[in-house]
Design brief:
- The protein is an all-beta fold and 124 residues long.
- Helix content is 0%, strand content 51%.
- It is built from no helices and 11 strands.
- The strands form 2 sheets. Strands 2, 4, 5, 6, 9, 10 and 11 form a 7-stranded mixed beta sheet that branches.
- A hairpin with a 6-residue loop joins strand 4 and strand 5 (46-51).
Length: 124
Amino acid sequence: QVQLVESGGGLVQAGGSLRLSCAASGRTFSSYAMGWFRQAPGKEREFVATISRSGGTTYYADSVKGRFTISRDNAKNTGYLQMNSLKPEDTAVYYCAAQSSPAYLTRPRDYHYWGQGTQVTVSS
C-alpha cells in the first residue's frame, strides 16, 4: 500500500498560482502512476492530470492544459501540481491518487489509493 498526503492548497486571486504537493509513504512511490483529481461542491470528482511512474509522460484534462503542470520527484517520494493562471472555476478540493497500471487512467475508480484532499479557492 501507499499513503498519500496533499498540501499546498489555499486562497488565491484569479490569475494567481499555487503548487500542490503529494507526499507518499509506504510502498515504493515509483511503482505507481500518479494522478490529480478535483471535486467542486455538488459536482462529481473529475480528472485533472496524470503522470507515469518514471515521470516521463504526462496527460492533462483539456480544462487545465497549458495552465497546470504535473511532476514528480521519486527520490523525495513526492508529486506536484503547479497551477498557474488560476480561474474561479478551478475552485475545488484537490486530491492526489495512485494506481499501479502503466496505462494513462482518468477515471477515479481506476485509482487504488487517495489522499485526504486539499482545498483550493480562487477568488474573482
